[in-house]
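wait is this the right file?? whatever heres the structure
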């Protein structure tokens, strides 16, 4: 027989003070309750109940077992309630962390649609270029771009973005245009200081070889939009994701630094705390983002 069923039958007999009332409480026959309890006693090799014609009471061993059994049954009930809640209507406060430039340009514009679809969710979004600790800081979800660090966090890929070196036409008129990766050592580079790799650009040569460019850089900024503005103004060459440079490239404000280089593609991910169950509000938001960005490929930003 099922252990939980045996345990529940025994605990209910103790609670109700007899087999008849326990059967009524459980909605099964008195003989079924008796079989469950007898099976439990046989499996444990111990008598758990004192039975007389007038009353039923737990033995000393039975009373000790009852205390533990009731905890297990309560935990099982809470687990069932949790699953039910997880499948219910998404509600509550959803705390999100995202990089400022991505949040302003691409996340904020779609939030109105999400909130219209899920009116019982309240969004608290922090736009910051710092790397937040989801669990310790109480965030439900963060959007991250590029290679993910090894961690216990769960992740779902939302879309991709292309990385490209860009600068203004005026910069190249003044300093010349690099023809190969090694030429970058002679140029003014603009760095994004929040990259985990520091002032290192990981590039792919036309041969497919992976190369790294490590320079101090002329300017370092912890904000992608500010870095793009610096490139547009002619301060140097920046290495940015397509969701930032796409409009500037289309308008001619910036151009490709080395057109022959293959574009490196980075993933855009939703990361969230580990666990067997994902909260409905988190699952709803991730599913929404997957749909919202479904038509956004690496070259579409």
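ok assuming it is, sequence goes like this
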């Amino acid at each position: 027989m099922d252990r939980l069923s045996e345990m529940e039958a025994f605990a209910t007999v103790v609670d109700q003070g007899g087999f008849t009332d326990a059967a009524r409480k459980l909605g099964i026959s008195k003989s079924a309750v008796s079989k469950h309890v007898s099976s439990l006693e046989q499996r444990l090799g111990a008598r758990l109940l004192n039975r007389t014609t007038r009353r039923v009471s737990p033995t000393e061993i039975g009373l000790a077992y009852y205390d533990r059994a009731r905890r297990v049954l309560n935990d099982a009930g809470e687990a069932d309630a949790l699953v039910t809640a997880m499948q219910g209507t998404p509600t509550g406060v959803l705390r999100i962390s995202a990089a400022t430039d991505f949040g302003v340009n691409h996340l904020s514009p779609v939030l109105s649609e999400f909130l219209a679809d899920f009116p019982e969710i309240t969004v608290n979004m922090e736009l910051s270029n710092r790397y937040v600790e989801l669990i310790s800081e109480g965030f439900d979800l963060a959007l991250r771009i590029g290679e993910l660090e090894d961690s216990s966090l769960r992740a779902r890929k939302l879309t991709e973005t292309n990385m490209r070196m860009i600068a203004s036409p005026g910069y190249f008129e003044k300093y010349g245009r690099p023809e190969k990766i090694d030429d970058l050592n002679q140029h003014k580079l603009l760095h994004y200081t929040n990259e985990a790799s520091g002032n290192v650009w990981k590039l792919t040569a036309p041969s497919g070889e992976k190369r790294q460019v490590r320079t101090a850089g002329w300017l370092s900024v912890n904000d992608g939009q500010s870095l793009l503005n610096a490139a547009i103004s002619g301060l140097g060459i920046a290495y940015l994701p397509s969701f930032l440079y796409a409009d500037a490239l289309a308008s001619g404000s910036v151009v490709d630094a080395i057109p022959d280089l293959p574009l490196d593609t980075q993933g855009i991910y939703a990361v969230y705390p580990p666990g067997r169950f994902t909260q409905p509000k988190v699952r709803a938001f991730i599913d929404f983002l997957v749909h919202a960005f479904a038509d956004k490929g690496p070259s579409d930003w």
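The longest helix spans residues 60-86. so i think its the right one actually
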